[in-house]
Amino acid sequence: MRCLGIPTRVITNFDSGHDTDGNLIIDEYYDSTGRILENMKKDTVWNYHVWNECWMARRDLPPGHGGWQVLDATPQETSNGLYCCGPASVKAIKEGEVDLNYDTRFAFSMVNADCMSWLVSGGKEQKIHQDTAAVGNFISTKSIQSDERDDITDSYKYEEGSLQERQVFLKALQKLKAGSDVIQVSLKFELLDPPNMGQDINFVLLAVNMSPQFKDLKLNLSAQSLLHDGSPLAPFWQDVAYITLFPQEEKTYPCKILYSQYSQYLSTDKLIRVSALGEEKNSPEKILVNKIITLTFPGIMINVLGAAFVNQPLTVQVVFSNPLSEPVEDCVLTLEGSGLFRKQQRVL
């Protein structure tokens, strides 16, 4: 696009929604143990997705919808029978004008879909949780004349949790003749320590009763690894908790996943989803919460030893550590630098 003289920039969206049925909702289905039902999962949330914005006039749209337009060169769904996406007006996305061309509905769901969780039991589906802020975070591009990140989330949507943002979402739903509900009791996972690779994962489940009634909850907790596109692997950790809550009371339940429990089940993306599915005693009410944990690795330091001169050898020192409690073998250290190294790999 730049070669054609069209101003273009790369956009990165974190927690990017992939809504396959066009209802602006990312639907997830769980069984009574809190395990995701993969055979029913069609919508996903990618940990990030990238597209382009191109600056152009939109004489085919109502006035005010020119400027930056979304063009996705790597779409995963077809549009009118072709694998393409856009151009969709960023202004139309922000204002919930999901009926405007092209693929604005899908682009809206990438940045502002709600996540809905369903419990499947006995052939019936019951809504148990709705997250309005999980999709579309830290929408970013490169700053002008700088390598710093420029956060442009506010060009795609109003502030999460604000009245304007909810009004726009309801406006978009009304255009699709869809609906949305909310539920009461709150569950939330909070990490106690940084989730370092090779160490146990310590966290708590915070339960808050916002209703005027007493709550007697049974909670099924589970953990499973994820791929980068949100696809889950088999659960490797499960627990059951019983929590009683008086009106307006909150409690925490401590949780720990040992390194020995998750090490052999990790995917190459090092993502773990922890889930808690709660049910109230003598009531059909169900509650669900989940959290994605990204394991962190120790950094690698590169020290330049001595001054650097053109056409002369230069020695660098690479400092790294093994974060695991056991020795590792057959490791590979890869050094990259165009024309700088005679050998790119060292086996350790």
Topology summary:
Elements (H helix, E strand, L loop, with lengths): L7 E11 L6 E6 L13 E13 L10 E5 L16 E2 H5 L9 H9 L1 E8 L2 E8 L5 E6 L6 E3 L1 H4 L6 H14 L9 E6 L9 E8 L6 E12 L5 E14 L4 E8 L1 H4 L8 E10 L5 E9 L6 E5 L9 E5 L12 E3 L10 E3 L1
Parallel strand pairs: 2-6
Antiparallel strand pairs: 1-3, 1-8, 3-4, 4-5, 6-7, 8-9, 10-11, 11-14, 12-13, 12-15, 15-16, 17-18, 19-20
Question: What does this protein look like?
Answer:
This protein is mostly beta strands. It has three domains: 2-175, Coagulation Factor XIII, Chain A, domain 2 (Alpha-Beta Complex); 185-294, Sandwich (Immunoglobulin-like), CATH 2.60.40.10; 298-347, no CATH class. It has helices at 90-94, 104-112, 153-156, 163-176, 259-262, and strands at 8-18, 25-30, 44-56, 67-71, 88-89, 114-121, 124-131, 137-142, 149-151, 186-191, 201-208, 215-226, 232-245, 250-257, 271-280, 286-294, 301-305, 315-319, 332-334, 345-347. The model is unreliable at 178-183 (pLDDT under 50).
The helix-and-strand class reads mainly beta
Q: Write the CATH homologous superfamily of the largest domain.
A: Transglutaminase-like
Gross CATH architecture of the largest domain: Alpha-Beta Complex
From the N-terminal CA to the C-terminal CA, the straight-line distance is 44 Å
Q: What is the CA-based Rg, rounded?
A: 24 Å
Strand-and-helix sequence, N→C?
Answer: EEEEEHHEEEEHHEEEEEHEEEEEE
How many helices?
5
Domains, number: 3
Helix content: 10-25%
InterPro entries: Ig-like_fold (IPR013783), Papain-like_cys_pep_sf (IPR038765), Transglutaminase (IPR050779), Transglutaminase-like (IPR002931), Transglutaminase-like_sf (IPR036985), Transglutaminase_C (IPR008958), Transglutaminase_C_sf (IPR036238)
Domain Transglutaminase-like: 1-75
Protein name: Transglutaminase-like domain-containing protein
Pfam families: Transglut_C, Transglut_core
